[in-house]
Amino acid sequence: MKHMLNYGDGPKAIYEILKRQIIAGELEPGNELKIMPLAKEMDISIVPLREAIRMLAAEKLVELRPRRSPIIARLDVRDLVEMNQIRGALEPIILADAIPRHTDETLKECEKVLKRTTKVKDPWEMVELNKDFHLAILGPTRLKRSLEIVSDQYDGIARLTQFRVITHEEQLGKLHDEHAGIFEAAKRGDVDAAVSEMTHHIDQATTRAANELNSEDQSDDTSGEHAS
C-alpha cells in the first residue's frame, strides 16, 4: 500500500489515496486503520493523516472509535436504501424542472459523458461517469439546494457500493442503456418519459446494490460457519 506523496501534500491528497483503496476493496470493511504504522508506511506525518481520516469519516467510509483505532466502515443495506430513497424522491422532480431549461450546449455535455461510458472498462472511471451524467442531466435545474443534496448521495458508501456493482461486467452495458433512455427522452423534451426512465433507473440501481450487499453478507456468514 506504499504511495509516494510529494512533500507538502496535505490531508486532501492522503484522503484521495485512502478513499480509492477503500472503494477498490484494498482496505476491507472492518479492518483497523492503525495511525502510527499507516503513517510510517505512507511516509507521512500523523497530523494530515488524522485529518484525512476525519474526512473519510464524514463520508461514512471510516468509523471513528473513542480511544481505539478507526475502522473501515461496514456497508449497510439500510443506509444504501435510504440514500436511494432520497435520490428517488428528488431526482425526478429536479429532472422535470431541468428538461425545459436544457440548451443545445448542455445536451451536448450530457451526450459527451454518455458516449464516454461506451468506451470505459475501468469500474472506477465508470462510477465517476455515473455521477457526471446524473449531475449533467439535472444541471440546468433551478432547484440548486435539492441538486446539492442529490450530489451528496453519490459519495462515500454509495460510491463504494456502485463500484462493487459495476465491477460485474454485465452491469456496464445496463447502466449505459438506462442513461441513454433518460437522455433521449430529455433531448425530445418529453418530461413524463424522462421522469419515468429516471425513476426506473434509480429503482434498478437500488435493487442491484441491495442484492450485491446481501450476497456479500451471506458470503461472510457462510465463511464464519466454515471457520467455526
Model description:
- This protein is mainly alpha-helical.
- It has 2 domains: 11-72, Winged helix-like DNA-binding domain superfamily/Winged helix DNA-binding domain (Arc Repressor Mutant, subunit A), CATH 1.10.10.10; 77-220, GntR ligand-binding domain-like (Four Helix Bundle (Hemerythrin (Met), subunit A)).
- It is built from 10 helices and 2 strands.
- It has helices spanning 11-23, 35-42, 46-58, 77-98, 104-117, 123-138, 144-152, 157-166, 170-188, 191-227, and strands at residues 62-65, 68-72.
- Strand 1 and strand 2 (68-72) form a beta hairpin.
- The longest helix is centred in the last third of the chain and has 37 residues, at 191-227.
- The model is unreliable at 222-228 (pLDDT under 50).
Give a concise summary.
The chain has 10 helices and 2 strands, in the order H-H-H-E-E-H-H-H-H-H-H-H. The protein is mainly α and 228 residues long.
Q: What does the secondary structure layout of this molecule look like, with pairings?
A:
Layout: H1 11-23, H2 35-42, H3 46-58, E1 62-65, E2 68-72, H4 77-98, H5 104-117, H6 123-138, H7 144-152, H8 157-166, H9 170-188, H10 191-227
Antiparallel strand pairs: 1-2
Helix pairs in contact: 1-3, 4-7, 4-10, 5-6, 5-9, 6-8, 6-9, 8-10, 9-10
